[in-house]
Design goal:
alpha+beta; Hsp33 domain; CBS domain Like; 2 domains
Length: 290
C-alpha cells in the first residue's frame, strides 16, 4: 500500500493526466489533538486531498492554499500544500454542524485558491461556493477560472484521506472523446476502492484498456512552517507599547503565541519581549512548547 504518497499517471492516447493521493500518517498528524466533529473532519479531509491534488498539477516552487469560507456553521477551511509535498490545514466551526450539501454546511460563501511562488507574482482565484460537495465546487472553479476540464474523486475514513484527479492536457483539448471515455471509467470508482486498493492495482483496474503510464510516487507529509522567528516578526509589527501592555495584562505569566495549524506554542517572557525590539537580536527560543 502506497501510504502518504502522490502518484502521477498519464493516459497518453486520451490526452489526460492524473494524480492519485493517499494520506494516512499525514491525516492523523493533522487532526491529532483536535476535537473536530465527524462532519467537520470529513470536509477537512476532502479539502486536504483536493489541495494536495491541485498542487501536483502546477510546476512551481512555493505553496498552494485552498480556502473555503462562508457564514454557515462550518465557516472556514484552510489547507496549504507546498511544492515539497508537505501539507497543513485547519477548520473552524460554530454551533452544531450536521451533514448536508455545501450550502447547508457553509451558508453563503466562496472558494479561493491562492498560489504563492517563492519567486514571482502571487496569484489568487475566487469563485462563489457552488455545488453539493467540495470536489464539485472545485470542478466548477476550473470551468470558470482555468477553462480546463478537471474532475476529482475523494474518500476518507478514520485512518485515511484519499483522492484522484483527472485533467485534460491543454494540448489535447480537442480530444473530447478521450476525455469523456476516461471520465466514465473513473466514475465507476467507489470510495471503498479508493481507500482500500493499492495505487497501481486501482489504476490498472480502472484503465486496463488504456495506454497508461504510471510514474514513481512522491512521499507526502504533514509539516508546519511556523517558527519563533515568524512570531517575532508579528510581535514587532504590533509595536513595543502594545506588546508591553499585553505582557503586563498577562503578568506574572508569559505571553503565549500558538500556531493555529499545528498547535505549537511559543512563550515570551519580559526579557524575550525586550529582545524582540533590539535590532538584530532574536529571543533564544528556550521557552518553546510542543
Amino acid at each position: 500500500m502506497n501510504h502518504d504518497s502522490m502518484q502521477t499517471f498519464l493516459i497518453e492516447t486520451a490526452g489526460v493526466r492524473g494524480e492519485l493521493v493517499r494520506l494516512n500518517r499525514t491525516w492523523d498528524a493533522l487532526i491529532q489533538g483536535r476535537d473536530y466533529p465527524q462532519v467537520v473532519r470529513e470536509q477537512l479531509a476532502h479539502a486536504l486531498v483536493c489541495a494536495s491534488l491541485l498542487s501536483a498539477t502546477i510546476k512551481f516552487d512555493g505553496s498552494l492554499t485552498l480556502q473555503v469560507q462562508g457564514d454557515g456553521p462550518l465557516h472556514l477551511l484552510v489547507v496549504q500544500a507546498s511544492s515539497r509535498r508537505t501539507l497543513r490545514g485547519i477548520a473552524r466551526w460554530r454551533d452544531r454542524v450536521t451533514p448536508g450539501p455545501l450550502a447547508q454546511l457553509f451558508g453563503r460563501g466562496h472558494l479561493a485558491i491562492t498560489i504563492e511562488p517563492r519567486k514571482g507574482k502571487r496569484y489568487q482565484g475566487i469563485v462563489p461556493l457552488e455545488g453539493g460537495t467540495l470536489p464539485v465546487a472545485i470542478e466548477g472553479y476550473f470551468r470558470q477560472s482555468e477553462q480546463l476540464p478537471t474532475k476529482l474523486w475523494v474518500a476518507s475514513d478514520a485512518g485515511a484521506a484519499c483522492g484522484m484527479l483527472l485533467q485534460q492536457l491543454p494540448d489535447d483539448a480537442a480530444d473530447t472523446e478521450g476525455w469523456r471515455r476516461v471520465s466514465l471509467l473513473a466514475d465507476t470508482l467507489t470510495p471503498r476502492e479508493l481507500i482500500g486498493l493499492e495505487s497501481e492495482r486501482l489504476l490498472g483496474r480502472l484503465f486496463s484498456e488504456e495506454d497508461l503510464r504510471v510514474f514513481d510516487p512522491d512521499p507526502m507529509a504533514f509539516r508546519c512552517s511556523c517558527s519563533r522567528e515568524r512570531i517575532v516578526d508579528v510581535f514587532r509589527s504590533f509595536g513595543r507599547a502594545e506588546m508591553e501592555a499585553a505582557l503586563e495584562a498577562r503578568a506574572p505569566e508569559p505571553l503565549e503565541a500558538k500556531c493555529e495549524f499545528c498547535g505549537r506554542a511559543y512563550l515570551f517572557d519580559r526579557v524575550d519581549v525586550e529582545q524582540v525590539f533590539v535590532s538584530g537580536v532574536q529571543p533564544d527560543g528556550s521557552s518553546l512548547l510542543h
